[in-house]
Each structure stands twice: as C-alpha cells, then as structure tokens.
Amino acid sequence: MGFSDAKRRVLEALATGAYQHEARRDIDVKNRFQTGEITADQVAALIRKCNGNDHKMSPHHSLKSVAVHVLTKDGWYIKFYFLEPDTWFISVHP
Q1: 5 falls in which pLDDT band (50, 70, 90)?
Q2: 20-26, long-range: CB within 8 Å, 24+ apart, which pairs?
Q3: Contact, 59 vs 67, CB < 8 A?
Q4: CATH number for the segment(s) 3-93
Q5: Over the stretch 9-68, which tens digit does the pLDDT of each residue have?
Q6: How many CB atoms lie within 10 A of CB 29?
Q7: Angle (CA) 86 44 50, round 5°
Q8: Checking DSSP bridges between strand 86-93 and strand 19-21, what pairing results, if any?
C-alpha cells in the first residue's frame, strides 16, 4: 500500500474512531495522542498536510509482514500501521 491509500485509510480511521494505540514504554514522550495531549482532529490535520515526500515505510519490529507508515510534518513524527479492523498508532510526538 502506498502513501495515498495509507493517508486515506488513516484519515478515515481517525474520523470514525477505528484506531488503537500500541502498548509501549515512554508513552508520555512517544505517543502524545494516546496521552490526550493532541486530539484525533489535530493528528488528522497534520496528516492532511502530508504528501508523499513526508512518508516512509518499514516493516513492523515484531510483525515483519506488517508495513509501518511513518509521516514527518511540521516537526511531528507519526508512526502507524493497519491491522484489521483497526489502525494502530505507535508514536505521535514532536
């Protein structure tokens, strides 16, 4: 899945609430979305600004068959993947 499809799917997930947060250490630093410091609407606004140059992909650290999408925009780092039926956020932080 390329950037355009990933962007469409993640924005849809944010709009409908079909997302979760991956458990991890340092949540207060690494996932400001999960802590409530940034809202779903704010994350969506950042993602809407992104284009293909702001996007990278890599395999998930433990689920190698799952592609992780990384967006960097306006000093923010957004890392997520799709595992049906939800979108999973790993990191959202400046």
Answers
A1: very high
A2: 20/86, 20/87, 20/88, 20/89, 21/88, 21/89, 22/88, 22/89, 22/90, 24/90, 24/91
A3: yes
A4: 3.30.2310.40
A5: 999 999 999 999 998 777 666 889 999 999 999 999 999 999 999 999 998 888 888 999
A6: 11
A7: 110
A8: parallel
Q: Which two tokens stand for residue 1?
A: 């899945």
Strand partners, 57: 69
User: In angstroms, rounded to a whole number, what is the distance separating the alpha carbons of residues 49 and 77?
Assistant: 13
CA 28 to chain centre: 16
Helix (H, G, I), strand (E, B) or coil at 1: coil
Which two structure tokens, joined as six digits, stand for 18?
A: 């079909």
* pLDDT at residue 62 in the model: 82
Cβ-based burial of 52 (10 A; exposed 0-12, middle 13-18, buried ≥19):
exposed
Domain boundaries, the chain: 3-93
